[in-house]
Structure prediction request, 72 residues.
Amino acid sequence: VALRGKLFVAPPDPPFARYLILGSISPTIVFLASIPMAFVSPTLALLWWLVGSLLAGWALSRRRATPPEDPA
Prediction:
């Protein structure tokens, strides 16, 4: 919403914008993937939250994206 509404003081470049979007939807992806696992085993779903969150954080940390310069 902030990207489309141009609510940033300094607009981010496309790689950093993708980084922001992926960072915001990764918890949702991990949670949605855990729902079918919960039918098999609730413990498996809880473990997936831990492992999936760590994997998502690791994958995001490997992306090279620099924030825009502060105009102030």
Remarks:
- Residues 34-63 form one domain.
- Residues 14-40 form the longest helix (27 residues).
- The mean pLDDT is 85.
